[in-house]
Request: fold
Amino acid sequence: MWDLIQRGGPMMYLILISSVIAFGVVIERAYHLNKARIDAARFMENIVNVLKRNKIIEAIEICNSTPGPIAHIVKAGILKHDRSKPEIREAVEEASQLEIPRLEKHLPVLATIAHIAPLLGLVGTVTGMIKSFQVIQQKASAMVPVNPGDLAGGILEALLATLAGLLVAIPTYIAYNYLVSQVDNLVYDMETSATDLVNLLSSKRDTYEV
Reply:
């Protein structure tokens, strides 16, 4: 394997570094998003049942014991339970603006690697072909016949660089789309939970007692 990397030319090292970074980001994001995922419907059902009994402190404790952005956003709204609907909505939106960037953290890195890995492979392809043409030029200047073996090194470098770039870009792009879909699902659950909470609190705020 290491021999192939060396034969692929200098671009292979950049592609290899990109693959390591991409792998680390995928593992970190998958772990983080998995921790952030909860059963939003069941969580909101518990919150609604508690709030209908005017148990604000208990609802906050449920949020504190529940991991993930949905609980954080709901807690922000509950803390404003005695305010007007616009104020409750504003608190929820501010909390969302803090949580969404955390969910999307490092995803641009994956997108960048997915786009530049084939370009790095293309650069390696070009440099490999340049080496082959340089051999042809040198042989022609010396009036020496060109053998296929003389060109093999440059062509091999070109092909290995192209292959490596694609092997990094394709799974990285797939992982990126998967993680983006997971973020979108979480954001949808956040928005749904926030809307339900705002509607509930705005209709019950005058009757709540801690």
Q: What stands out?
A: The chain has eight helices and no strands. The CA atoms of residues 82 and 180 lie 36 Å apart.
